[in-house]
Design a protein that fits this description.
DNAb Helicase, Chain A; 2 domains
Length: 513
């Protein structure tokens, strides 16, 4: 019986190695003492660890207070040794709480030098992350047993808490410039191989792409306008251009419209059939053929739509990560920024929340290394302005942080919406949209004309710009440029639309979207 008791005790000790009574949280007290001692031995030691650990990283409360005092001394450009640290703790009335001057002195005797301080600090940071994951897991488990809690709120809480752990503790290392130069040269060489010379994701609008060289990786692009200016139509036109014409994968997060509404808009834009007929399904036989033929490319387009309402930045990050791992997304579009939510604690005002959202979107763009296009509303000051009513950066709604965080800010301006049908020279402004590039961190500012087809809610290249660019490219290549008859072109196009290019196919009964 005694032997059995001894065997049981050994088994328990083997299963629970950290303590006689149960598991202890991950910790490294000896390394905490060694790091604090090394900091007080060598004046520059704090520089090696201050971006790796912070006061909360220490397990022992007294060690947290000592390290906090060290950080304050460092920020004040004061020397760091046992005397100054002791005096700082005395000033804070925390000296007795950490063990008095004797304990401060003993810390320096536990280490000979600061030679391995960075390695020790990383172990302390690792233990802290483990403790945080245990804490978060425990809270998630407790909430999961609460039947009164909505499961979507639980998922949002779980994602946000894990995001905080990752965001606060996973640091990116510095890179020597020669490696970065090699990467930059590689990107330039890749861009040179492309016929269009673009280094980023093409928008499909000729002059806009010339100014931006395409949407660049890690950029946050804000596209802003007043309601009914065509923000959604603009990004849908781009999404179609990017996915269908350039085979780029597009993730579209729609917080305002349902996914089916967006797809219906895409169908109208691609097929050029009346939107009311698409909605009620009253199509003539030739229109069904036109629908079947024109929609084929759209069915195969790599466009991924998520219409989750009031999506949080944490949920957006998680979904983008999953999409990136599964589909290798090239660009992310958000319609629109002000409908997103920041945190669940509801602390602070809406302006602070929008600031958090814009900073987070820029962080996601950098983390995933893709451009993010976020639509934004403008305030009413545009409509109260006299003259051309052109928007400006100060019109961005709810937060100046949007302007600060964005790499590009574009405004959509359609003068005819304000009753302006002619410009100063008497040229018609009907059907003309102006894309105002008001901020361009890495390039020039510009005003780009586009054509807006109201009946199709579709943006296209302005004919004058397209012809000028085409002529310029032809002259560069030493070739002759020939313009065909527009009347014949329209006639041929109309016949092709009606007769579907003689296409006879059985359209799959299953809806392609």
């Amino acid at each position: 019986m005694v032997a059995n008791t001894k065997n049981t005790k050994k088994a328990v000790q083997k299963a629970v190695p950290n303590s006689e009574y149960g598991k202890l949280p991950p910790q490294a007290l000896d390394l905490e003492e060694a790091v604090l001692g090394a900091i007080m031995l060598e004046k520059d030691a704090i520089i090696s660890v201050m971006d790796i650990i912070r006061p909360d990283s220490f397990y022992k409360d007294s060690h947290q207070k000592i390290f906090s005092a060290v950080l304050d001394l460092s920020q004040a450009l004061q020397p760091i040794d046992i005397l100054t640290v002791t005096e700082e703790l005395r000033r804070r009335d925390q000296l007795d709480e950490v063990g008095g001057p004797f304990y401060i002195t003993t810390l320096t005797s536990k280490v000979a030098s600061a030679a391995h301080i960075e390695y020790h600090a990383r172990i302390i940071a690792q233990k802290y992350i483990q403790r945080e994951l245990i804490r978060v897991s425990s809270e998630i488990q407790t909430k999961a047993y609460d039947d009164s809690l909505d499961v979507n709120d639980l998922i949002d809480f779980s994602e946000s808490e894990l995001f905080k752990v990752a965001e606060g503790n996973i640091k990116k290392e510095t890179t020597k410039i020669n490696i970065l130069i090699q990467e930059a040269i590689s990107q330039i060489e890749e861009a040179a191989k492309r016929e269009d010379g673009l280094s980023g994701v093409p928008s499909g609008f000729t002059k806009l792409d010339r100014v931006t060289s395409g949407w660049q990786k890690s950029d946050l692009v804000i596209i802003a306008a007043r309601p009914s200016m065509g923000k959604t139509a603009f990004v849908l036109s781009m999404a179609k251009n990017m996915a269908v014409d350039h085979n780029r994968s597009v993730a579209l997060f729609s917080l305002e419209m349902s996914s089916v509404q967006l797809v219906n808009r895409l169908i109208v834009s691609e097929t050029e059939l009346p939107s009311d007929k698409i909605r009620n399904g009253r199509l003539e036989p030739f229109e069904w053929e036109q629908l079947e033929y024109r929609i084929k490319k759209l069915v195969e387009a790599p466009i991924y739509i998520d219409d989750t309402p009031a999506i949080s930045v944490f949920e957006l990050r998680a979904k983008c990560r999953r999409l990136m791992s599964q589909q290798k997304i090239d660009i992310i579009i958000i319609d629109y920024l002000q409908l997103m939510t920041g945190t669940n604690d509801n602390k602070g005002n809406r302006e602070q929340e929008v600031s958090l959202i814009s900073r987070s979107l820029k962080g996601i763009a950098k983390e995933l290394n893709v451009p993010i296009l976020a639509l934004s509303q403008l305030n009413r000051s545009v409509e109260l302005r006299s003259g051309t009513k052109r928007p400006q950066l100060s019109d961005l709604r709810e937060s100046g942080a949007i302007e600060q965080d964005a790499d590009m800010v574009l405004f959509i301006h359609r003068p005819e919406k304000y009753g302006l049908t002619e410009d100063e020279d008497g040229n018609s402004l009907i059907g003309m949209a102006e894309i105002i590039l008001a901020k361009h961190r890495n390039g020039a500012l510009a005003d780009i004309k586009l054509k807006f087809r109201n009946e199709l809610a579709k943006f296209e290249d302005y004919e004058d710009d397209y012809a000028a660019v085409t002529a310029d490219e032809s002259l560069k290549n030493g070739g002759a440029l020939t313009f065909g008859s527009k009347m014949n072109k329209d006639k041929d196009s109309k016949n092709k639309d009606i007769f579907g290019l003689g296409h006879n196919s059985n359209f799959d009964n299953e809806a392609p979207f």
